[in-house]
Predict the 3D structure of the following.
Amino acid sequence: MNAQIFLSCGQNLEYDEPRFVHLIEEKIKSLGFDCYVAAHKQSSRSIRENIFKQLEESEYFLFIDFKREELKAASSEAFYRGSVFSNQELALASFVDFGDDILLFQEAGVEIRGGMLNAIQGNVEQFVNRDALPDRIYELIKTKRDKKEWPNLTKNQLKLKVPSPAFCDARQTNNTILRHFFIQVLNNHHRKVALNCYAYLDTVLNLDSGQKTQTETIEFKWSGYTLPNARIGPNSSRRFDAFQFPLQQPDEIQFKVFTDSLEYYPCRFVNGPGRYQLTFSVVSDNFLTARQDFKLEFGNSLNELKFEDEQI
């Protein structure tokens, strides 16, 4: 689970840019990071399916503005155009919460503060020698990694799993005892807080009959908390209540959801002992939706109950 650096820079063969892109990519990977380099195909589909998605999934952003053709200027000093496509990627990146996790480089001679650099007022490092650039980038990223400013094991994602222990027994106000089973939601990012997280049961698949049901969109309860939305701190986790069983009636599953209508209650889809695949998801304001399949098997005794997450 390596952190990913989104490498945004020109790839024009005429200016020998792909050679430097490859060298920089190899330097990045040698430091234990994944590296995404956008294929510069300008179409609405490639931008939507590749650029947007990869920007959202990347932890760090590296922008390199190579100089291209010379621009006509009123003064005698020569200026050059940078990569238009890279500046477009920088514009898109400005909508992603990279914070300080961004490095900006501009080749000497490129129009200073041209394109998006002028709009975002970023701290740009200028370079003269392209041959020295891969080593310079290597040293900067290595320093950030070693200082834990850019940890390479962080991920811009939430992950769902069965915690250990998976349940606890709690006495209720009516003196009954419920065995509560949980799902743990991990925030794998080193600095971002996951905001307004909501948990849902998307589908129920009866593994014995093969019947699959899409449930109503209804919020599940976070453990020890009375509101449907919660925050999860960086490198932290939070549990929500997946389901529970009364110790006196171990074949009767219950769910804690925010609803006042039986029509929305998921119990009618898990109607008695058997084997089920439950697909849960967690949505957040600033993370991609996390989704995971879980296998539940229960009978007439809690000793028969099995609950585990499955790879999807």
